[in-house]
Design brief:
The structure holds two protein chains of two kinds.
Chain A: E1 2-3, E2 10-11, E3 25-29, H1 36-44, E4 55-56, E5 59-60, E6 68-71, H2 83-93, H3 103-116, H4 132-144, E7 150-154, H5 162-179, E8 182-187, H6 190-196, E9 199-204, E10 209-215, H7 230-242
Parallel strand pairs in A: 3-8, 3-9, 6-7, 7-8
Antiparallel strand pairs in A: 1-2, 4-5, 9-10
Helix pairs in contact in A: 2-3, 2-4, 6-7
Chain B: H1 3-31, H2 41-50, H3 52-86, H4 88-103, H5 110-117, H6 121-145, H7 149-156, H8 162-199, H9 205-214, H10 218-246
Helix pairs in contact in B: 2-10, 3-4, 3-6, 3-8, 3-9, 4-6, 5-6, 6-8, 7-8, 8-9, 8-10, 9-10
């Protein structure tokens, strides 16, 4: 994958091979600008593949997939819509919900999803009336409302403070456990990656390459206390040594 | 509205306006300015009351021609703006022509319109339209062009079509720009209608002022100006109210300032 054209083009990622099993939680870590987000844009179908093969459920990816839900570093909520209406947005686009979409029909579904991340009572608020953490929760709900099989998260907690971030780790952990959704999380926070993921891939700098695949064998369900356990620290330490700079 | 806000929003513009008229009155009396040069407010309001019937009739004509031209400009401007914002080729193609067209003083176009449609209300409506659609087109196109690609990505990742993205993101996102341009457009439409009336018409405030001027009835001319100013403020306030109603989300937090 490359940005720009001709000689000036920047090759963002090169020779990346990875396989994600259904229901697996995968994290991709690497230094800033290593092509983590580019990889995600490829998988989501937002950016066409220049060379190589990319398949989801055995079929090559040619464009955006309906079975994918995405959340970004910025919550990217539509400011003119309430939290509830923002969460409902994918249902107005994606089949089969789109046909015969009505707000009454699905608002209960959206409300219970928002409640499950602790946003009961905030459904009618506009994005600017929500805190950063609340916005990000809403954004993750929006990525999940159409029941995608794959959840792509591009540094979703990057802009949050440490406490809110840990709170949202737990929210995401519980959502994934409840829904058995396949998750690919791009992050530069190693503790986040190790706490949440089954498998962590480490990428190197430009052009991005996968340099290590690392399985996290900590038992589930994981509690926040696990982040202070020696076994956890060892994995984080090992990953850190693979990333220079 | 609490008392403090009431004082700021209602009392202060009222005091300022009254003060302006008082100063005007004092200057006229103190310097003994002749009526044919600058009539004092008392003379102007006297004329306004004395000739209220013809002033009312002519204001009504100016008002409806302005609104008709403004309405056509809104529909046309919105459509063209979305078209221009939709496709870059369309943008590149139309933009120079638009700018060229906007550079033509509309006073120069009025005689042509009169030639085509005769003396009457139609040239006024058309002038109001021609002068006011440009800011609407430019603003709507700008609103669409500056839509954050991240917001579009949210929809694109779901496999949304370009029409979907336009409906769900592009158009709502550019509504504040659209309504902002309406405030500019309504005053321009007003200018257009009056300009057309002063060049050639048989009714309207512009025509009334032209006749009064020819008869050296300067207080009536100023009465006409006052009516124009008041109508302009009312139309502006109406569009501003519509704007606040539809795009409240874009003005968040202003109540606290």
């Amino acid at each position: 994958m490359a940005y720009g054209r001709g000689a000036a083009a920047v090759r963002a990622i090169d020779e990346v091979t990875l396989e994600i099993a259904r229901g697996e939680f995968v994290a991709v870590v690497g230094p800033s600008g290593c092509g983590k987000s580019s990889l995600m844009r490829l998988i989501s179908g937002l950016h066409p593949v220049a060379s190589g093969v990319l398949t989801v459920e055995g079929k090559p990816v040619r464009g955006p997939l309906k079975s994918v839900g995405m959340a970004f570093q910025n919550s990217n909520l539509l400011p003119w819509r309430t939290a509830l209406d923002n969460v409902l947005l994918p249902l107005e686009i994606v089949e089969p919900y789109r046909r015969g979409f009505s707000k009454q029909k699905y608002s209960q579904k959206a409300k219970s999803l928002l409640e499950s991340v602790g946003l009961a009572g905030f459904t009618e608020k506009h994005p600017w009336e929500l805190s950063g953490g609340m916005q990000q929760r809403t954004s993750i709900c929006r990525a999940l409302i159409h029941e995608p099989e794959i959840l792509l998260l591009d540094e979703p907690f990057g802009a949050l403070d440490a406490f809110t971030r840990e709170e949202l780790w737990c929210a995401l952990r519980d959502l994934q456990a409840a829904r058995k959704v396949t998750v690919m999380l791009v992050t530069h926070d190693l503790r986040e990656a190790v706490f949440l993921a089954d498998t962590v891939y480490v990428m190197s700098s430009r052009p991005g390459r996968i340099v290590r695949r690392c399985e996290v064998n900590l038992p589930r369900p994981r509690d926040l206390d696990v982040t202070y356990a020696p076994a956890f620290q060892d994995v984080v330490h090992e990953l850190r040594s693979l990333i220079r700079g | 509205m609490d008392r403090r806000e009431l004082a700021i929003k209602v009392l202060s513009p009222l005091l300022f306006t009254v003060g302006l008229f008082v100063v005007w009155e004092i200057v006229c009396r103190a310097l003994d300015v002749p009526l044919t040069i600058l009539p004092a407010p008392s003379d102007v309001f006297g004329a306004l009351w004395q000739y209220r019937k013809p002033i009312w009739d002519n204001s009504f004509v100016t008002l409806w021609t302005t609104l008709a031209g403004f309405l056509i400009a809104t529909v046309f401007g919105l459509a063209l703006g979305i078209g221009v914002g939709w496709h870059r080729a369309l943008y590149a193609g139309i933009y120079p022509v638009l700018i060229g067209f906007n550079s033509i003083p509309k006073v120069a176009v009025v005689p042509v319109l009169i030639l085509w449609f005769g003396i009457g209300e139609i040239p006024a409506v058309l002038t109001a339209f021609l002068i006011s659609f440009f800011p609407i087109v430019v603003n709507v196109a700008t609103g669409l062009a500056t839509t954050e690609p991240e917001l579009e990505d949210v929809l694109r990742a779901l496999g949304a079509s370009k029409l979907d993205i336009m409906r769900k993101v592009g158009i709502p996102r550019s509504l504040p720009y659209f309504f902002g341009s309406l405030k500019v457009a309504i005053t321009l439409a007003f200018v257009g209608a009056v300009v057309s009336e002063t060049v050639g018409a048989n009714k309207g405030i512009g025509k009334l002022m032209l006749d009064a001027q020819a008869a050296f009835q300067v207080p009536i001319v100023f009465a006409g100006l006052i009516v124009l100013a008041v109508l302009g403020i009312l139309l502006y306030a109406a569009t501003a109210a519509i704007e606040a109603r539809f795009t409240g989300w874009a003005f968040r937090g202003q109540a606290n300032r």
